[in-house]
């Protein structure tokens, strides 16, 4: 790749980089194919008229083209030498007028038939949507439309997270308008066409929210296979399950996170009943998109300088106003509210609480291989 091409791609100017992966042009061209016959017919009549006026009236090529055009379209007379036409030219002009009128009526009928009986408008509308989706990067692809999808889409819009909804329903246009889906695809969820149209190759994650466990299983397996074909970093795959057994099955098949709505609702209701004030705090600070408090889990790689150091050596609370409220070790043991003398091990995860800016700075420090000088 040349340097100008790399520069354009890095700046988002590369047109080819923003093209849809699924090309609808062949289908659009097939819809436009019936228009070829009237266009060819009009061109033939124009050529006959031009040659006729050159031969009969000794017109120049340009004058002959002009005479043929307004005779063919029946738009007027008297601009050139019609008053002095020979009888042969008058007869020729009459036939040319009739041929032009017939050709135009024929062409208009075919155009109306293409626009009313074909799906050209739908194809053009879908192509426009695919070009918009092709511009997305690090978006989420949400498969299956239901009440879960509606609520999730609402939260994503509030948090300015880009997403595409994929469902095979024929009325997805109306569904998208009613539920304010900015990007959507009407295809069978686990097919390659759906992956191409939703631009899954540049997505951050896959969310499968079907109430049918077999559909979630099929989608997760298909997404993981597609991921291997692309040779890209793993998708973040999130799904839902109705039972604990199904939750474990989906995790074994490749889902990173599985939400069980009944269990989740039970926990929320329990929290409301036992600690109603704490539930209000969570609603106010953690679930709002513009909250000043954020929570995030940070992975500690083997190369990080914090490995085998005490938690207090990071000075996260002093420097960045960030607190570590939990540590998940590599084997899964969770340490809640660790003390400053807690030794950090490789491949553990730190649960950080603080503002967004502070957590971002803390992540950069934790991922460094050498201790920063300002600590």
Summary of the model, kept short:
By secondary structure, this protein is α/β, with parallel strands linked by helices.
What does this structure look like?
This protein is α/β, with parallel strands linked by helices. It folds into three domains: 33-117, Helix Hairpins; 136-259, Rossmann fold; 292-375, Regulator of K+ conductance, C-terminal domain (Alpha-Beta Plaits, 2-Layer Sandwich). Helix content is 51%, strand content 12%. The strands form two sheets. It has a six-stranded parallel beta sheet with strand order 3-2-1-4-5-6, with helices on both faces. Strands 7-10-8-9 form a four-stranded antiparallel beta sheet. α3 (36-57) packs across α4, α3 packs antiparallel against α5 and α12 (261-274) crosses α13. The longest helix is centred in the N-terminal third of the chain and has 31 residues, at 87-117. It starts with a helix and ends in an 8-residue tail after the last helix. The model is unreliable at 10-15 (pLDDT under 50).
- Number of self-contained structural domains: 3
Residue-averaged pLDDT: 84
Spatial order of strands in the largest sheet: 3-2-1-4-5-6
> In CATH's first tier, which class of the largest domain applies?
Alpha Beta
CATH architecture assignment name of the largest domain: 3-Layer(aba) Sandwich
What portion of residues is helical?
A: 40-55%
Q: How many distinct helices?
A: 15
Question: What is the fold named in CATH at topology level of the largest domain?
Answer: Rossmann fold
What's the overall geometry?
elongated
* Proportion in β-strands: 5-15%
Radius of gyration: 33 Å
* Number of separate strands: 10
End-to-end Cα distance, whole Å, is 42 Å
CATH superfamily of the largest domain: NAD(P)-binding Rossmann-like Domain
Helix and strand composition category: alpha/beta
Topology pattern, helix = H, strand = E: HHHHHHEHEHEHEHEHEHHEHEEEH
Instruction: Name the poorly predicted regions.
Output: 10-15
Instruction: Report on the biggest sheet.
Output: 6 strands, parallel
């Amino acid at each position: 790749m040349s340097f100008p091409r790399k520069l354009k791609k890095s700046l988002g100017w590369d047109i080819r980089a923003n093209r849809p992966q699924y090309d609808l042009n062949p289908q659009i061209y097939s819809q436009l194919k019936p228009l070829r016959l009237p266009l060819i017919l009009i061109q033939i009549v124009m050529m006959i008229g031009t040659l006729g006026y050159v031969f009969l009236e000794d017109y120049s090529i340009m004058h002959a083209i002009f005479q043929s055009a307004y005779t063919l379209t029946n738009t007027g007379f008297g601009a050139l030498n019609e008053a002095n036409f020979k009888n042969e030219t008058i007869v020729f002009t009459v036939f040319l007028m009739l041929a032009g009128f017939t050709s135009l009526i024929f062409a208009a009928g075919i155009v109306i038939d293409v626009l009313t009986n074909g799906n050209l408008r739908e194809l053009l509308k879908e192509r426009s949507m695919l070009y918009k989706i092709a511009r997305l990067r690090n978006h989420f692809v949400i498969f299956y439309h239901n009440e879960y999808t509606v609520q999730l889409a609402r939260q994503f819009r509030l948090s300015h997270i880009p997403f595409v909804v994929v469902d095979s329903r024929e009325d997805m246009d109306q569904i998208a308008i009613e539920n304010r889906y900015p990007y959507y695809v009407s295809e069978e969820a686990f097919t390659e066409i759906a992956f191409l149209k939703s631009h899954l190759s540049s997505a951050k994650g896959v969310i499968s929210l079907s109430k049918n466990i077999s559909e979630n299983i099929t989608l997760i397996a298909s997404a993981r296979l597609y991921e291997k074909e692309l040779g890209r970093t793993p998708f973040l795959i999130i799904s839902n399950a109705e039972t604990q057994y199904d939750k474990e099955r989906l995790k074994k098949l490749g889902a990173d996170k599985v939400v069980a709505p009944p269990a989740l609702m039970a926990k929320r209701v329990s929290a409301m009943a036992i600690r109603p004030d704490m539930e209000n705090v969570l609603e106010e600070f953690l679930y709002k998109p513009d909250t000043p408090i954020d929570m995030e889990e940070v992975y500690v790689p083997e190369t990080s300088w914090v490995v085998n150091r005490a938690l207090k050596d990071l000075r996260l609370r002093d420097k960045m106003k960030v607190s570590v409220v939990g540590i998940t070790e590599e084997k899964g043991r969770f340490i809640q509210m660790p003390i400053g003398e807690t030794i950090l091990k490789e491949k553990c995860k730190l649960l950080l609480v603080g503002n967004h800016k502070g957590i971002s700075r803390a992540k950069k420090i934790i991922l460094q291989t050498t201790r920063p000088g300002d600590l």
